[in-house]
Amino acid sequence: MNQKTDIENSYEPRVKSCESLVISHQSSVKDTEYCDWKLAVLKYAKFALFSFAFFLSTFSLTAQQQRFPKPEFDSGYTQPSPVTPEPRALALEYFDVLVLLLVLSAATWLALKSRSRQGILWLSVFTLAYFGFYRNGCICSIGSIQNVTLTLFDATYAISLTALLFFLLPLLFTLFFGRTFCAGACPLGAIQDVVVMKPISLPKWLNKTLGLIPYLYLSLAVLFAATGTDFIICRYDPFVGIFRMDAKFHMVVLGVAFLLMGMFVARPYCRFLCPYGVLLSWMSRFSKWHLSITPSKCIQCKLCTNSCPFDAIDFPTNEKEVVKSGLGPKRFITYALIIPLWVALGVFVGAQSHTFLSKANPTVYLAELLISNPEIKNDPDNIDVQTFMSQGKTMDQLVLEAETIRSEFFTGSMIAGGFMGLVIGMTLLNTVVFRKRQDYEPHRGNCFSCARCVDYCPVEK
Amino acid sequence: MTNNDKLKLAQNIALIAGIFCTAVAILLLLNFWQVSKSDPIESKALEALVQRLKQEPNNEELKAEIRAFDLLARKAYFNSQWQVKTGAYLILFGAVVLAFALRVYYSSKSKIEEPDAKLENEIAGRILAQKGIIVVGLVVMALAVVAGFATVNHLKDYDTVSLVAENEANTPEEQIEMIEVGQNPVTGNTPSEPAVDEVVEQVNQEETAIAEQPGAEKEVAVETPKEVVETKAPEKTAPAASGLTLAILKANHNSFRGPLGQGVSYAKNIPTEWNGAAGTNVLWKSPIPKHGFNSPVIWGDKIFIAGADNSAREVYCYDRNTGKLLWTGVANNIQGSPAAMPKVTPDTGLSAPSLTTDGKAVFAIFASGDLIAFDMNGKRLWARNLGVPNNHYGHSSSLITWAGKLFVQYDTNRGGKVLALNNTSGETLWETTRACKISWASPVLGEVDGKYQLLLTSDPIVAGYNIETGEELWQVECMMGEVGPSVAFSEGMVFAANEYARLVAIDPKTASVVWENDEYLPEAASPLAYNGLLFIATSYGVLVCYDTKTGEQYWEDDLGTTLYSSPVTADGKLFMMDNDGVMHVYEFGKELKKISENELGEHSGPTPAFADGRIYIRGDKNLYCIGK
Hints:
The structure holds two protein chains of two kinds.
Chain A: H1 2-31, H2 37-63, H3 90-113, H4 117-134, H5 141-153, H6 161-177, H7 180-185, H8 187-193, H9 204-210, H10 213-226, H11 232-235, H12 240-244, H13 249-262, H14 268-272, H15 275-285, E1 313-314, H16 319-325, H17 329-358, H18 362-372, H19 383-391, H20 395-430, E2 441-442
Helix pairs in contact in A: 1-2, 3-4, 3-6, 4-8, 5-6, 5-10, 6-15, 10-15, 10-20, 17-20, 18-20
Chain B: H1 3-37, H2 44-55, H3 60-109, H4 122-150, H5 154-183, H6 193-209, H7 214-220, H8 224-235, H9 246-250, E1 264-265, E2 282-287, E3 297-299, E4 302-308, E5 313-319, E6 325-330, E7 356-357, E8 361-365, E9 370-375, E10 380-385, E11 400-402, E12 405-409, E13 416-422, E14 428-434, E15 444-448, E16 451-457, E17 461-466, E18 472-477, E19 488-490, E20 493-497, E21 503-507, E22 512-517, E23 528-530, E24 533-537, E25 542-547, E26 553-558, E27 568-570, E28 573-577, E29 582-587, E30 594-599, E31 609-611, E32 614-618, E33 622-627
GO molecular function (chain A): 4 iron, 4 sulfur cluster binding; metal ion binding
Transmembrane segments (chain A): 44-63, 94-112, 119-145, 157-178, 205-227, 247-266, 332-351, 409-434
Keywords (chain A): 4Fe-4S, Electron transport, Iron, Iron-sulfur, Membrane, Metal-binding, Transmembrane, Transmembrane helix, Transport
């Protein structure tokens, strides 16, 4: 409350300045009636800009208005904010967008133009400090998937421009320059990147198989966000607790475990969990200007083969072996033909498991709890039940709501299942597709553009 | 500094930072273990002290000890919080140093390795990957299917549960019905002609005593035949054991909301115009010694109300023709009565339950649980304490009597029950425990299948009880929240409603909900059902008329005031008192026709009582008799 009042107070002068602007503007118009019309337009524009900024800033403040004032203490005790991170003034939110834009540009420039691993490392440290520890890991592009999903499915939820930009900007950059966002602008990537000590190379089959998990995570995250159930990406973010220094015990364990693992299996979250990585990987495959290992022509020195801790370097194709292996057109056709079967299986599985998945929804959970344990209504310690009882909603209404959500889950789970089937089918198909490659090249989908490999290349421009 | 020195320094720093991090981590874990083992705020010792204070509420030393202990516990809690926070920052600092040192160490050590002589066989890798993808894909799908099959869809059980409950409720009720028809002497078939004659005589006597208004009678003549048709069937009912018959009841207003508590008065020539402040059509006005929210009840020439404060609980009997206070009965010296009055809220008070009378005695109950009976001349007959009701607003359920029994709905925070007491001796005839929470509603009597049932509503059940045995005949789980409004009863249908719950029309024969609605719900005012119309008065001032059969809404009138008093019908009109003391009079019909608005001149929450040519209204301070 106090904090807000301060902010409100800080806007008081703005109101005054706006008012004085109007007054001065009016008087000036009176005085110089025949003044240049261009000047007047400019003044109007300035005024409009000010009022627009003022309107935006007060809008977010009135939305946070407390219904009852909090008690004040003489001892100097200040009330902790119930929201982490505390709501920011809109101008500061836009400042975050600006910082993201700058960091993205810097990462892109460092990866593609100056080809400086050192630069990207220090940029990562800045990102970790700013978006991680200072901004408490929120807002983040990975979580913004859910905001975008929710706004598409829930008419009552309007996404903020900041969240939308955090979602779109990295995708846009990736579409042109590869995953430079992962290299230097993502705090989750940064915290893992700085702890990479002695990375080991994982076999291809393990990389491919574990690579299915992000798709599963993405489909579940979208399903849960679309049904208004939960933002699981944020809830199970292993590092946000470290950024905020207030994680629950099990989340600390999870975060530390990821970091310890990350010393040897580089960036485990980015490679085998990150749902935003799926979208970035799609974009990056089409990227026009992607980081290359060599600045000019590959001399096949093989020095870079072990340079990538993420196993994202593709080697030249050995055509003889490919022909010999029998992974030819026959298998391609077989795998292509069974894709619809995978999709159908996924749809079936989705339909089967929708009841199970929908139990994560608080409304469905409460309705089922009250149906299966009617005596829980008398439990004064069950806050969910007591809140429901005090709302005066009838059981019928609750069950109806729960049934609606479950039917949404039925459709959503089938789509998610079908998507997973398609992903499995396509990944299989990909294993028999050979692209003719003569040089050592970064895998466009998996490369984080961290520029480690660049240092290994002896070729100079 | 040579590369070797650099290596050594980085190694040492990393080692120290590593040891430091481990030590802090161990300390943090110990702290976590200690806090989770014994939360200082949930201390058992503190709990024991608080328990002791409950027994010795005036022990100042103990209070000081508890405060000191509580402060200590809080200090310990915040201290451990500080330790966690500081530890977390220390470990972060250590980790940053460790990471930096390790990075320097590895970068100084590393040199570009020679490329592997033999690279991983790409083809073999791809074939393995195919197997891996197929296996993992199938395992994930299989797990999802198994999870799906292992999950119980409880939502599907919802309808089944209510259906089973309905079936269970139906079966025993039907069985009881069959047995009781033969056993119960009070049946709908017993002729009751003598009783009717008796009442007609009594009514005539009363009418001669009251100054009649012939003009008023003409006005209501049109409505009268309707009521005769309506009331014929119940009149068949035989006189109850006490000699009390429905016809006698109809000539009086012996309980909250009139005869049987149904909100229907059979009095005639009811005035529709008055003004309390100006004295227009006010026959008399008498001050009420002690405050209370109970509604007046009438028997013969006497009108009864009660009032209470922390010093005394009293019953007042007035002459209803002159307004003279005839006698005051004091409810004192009752065994088991608490020394101090229970805490109640001002909007309920210590004397919210209305009295009831059977013509021989008048019965009163107070928030203390004191139940007392006086004869019609103020002589104390019997008194007992039912146990102080645990009620956070104050006990408010009114009394009702029938068949020589006094019925008490006693739903408290400790559970619900209903009792029948012998009118003459006060002894408990039966007592039934109810599976419900606290309520503030009052019992209503209704005739179902030729027998009277006691109809009660509360959270969560609306139920009917055999008045002879107390057996629960049926129940429907449909209410919730703090139930204040009593049920309405008309033509064999029970109507229950409560704010934040719903309005339900229940057929007690099948214990099923015929229709329900949740648009307008009352907070305190009981619904009224009569002649195919149902009225709901919401606390935010909307009076709504529904069709009792279908639930179709006929009209609504937003009065823009607070309605706690219950709507009552009399003389073909609907009387709705608001909390400001303004009586809104309507034609009792499907169409909204407002006749008048009459100001009392003071606030009024109780429901008015009616006698031929008269309305009796309890204001905040005075009792009014309206008439011409």
